[in-house]
Amino acid sequence: MSQPKSITLSQDPKGIAVEWDDGHKGTYPFHFLRKACPCALCKGERTPLSTEPLSLPVLPNMPPTAFEAKDMFKVGRYAIGFRWGDGHDTGIYTFEYLRKICPCATCSR
To answer: What is the pTM of this model?
Structure first.
């Protein structure tokens, strides 16, 4: 599995730029990362006994601040997390997940 050599802020687009140890480089816009949040809440996980639909705001109805990263933090040696403008901070973006969802033209094919 590839590991990041560096993770830096990107200004255009606003997000992060990751240089991987195999030489690949990917830029992840914050808007893209927020929509790809891997937490149970964002993915719609619910208790097995529940038959009611999850009553959460859907992404198009989220405030613009929900897509602004206010803070980025390490999670052990295997992931990063973000504190978004709406206060959400439970998504753990493992390095494996980040590499898998790389939005660059090469990886998107």
So the answer is: 0.84
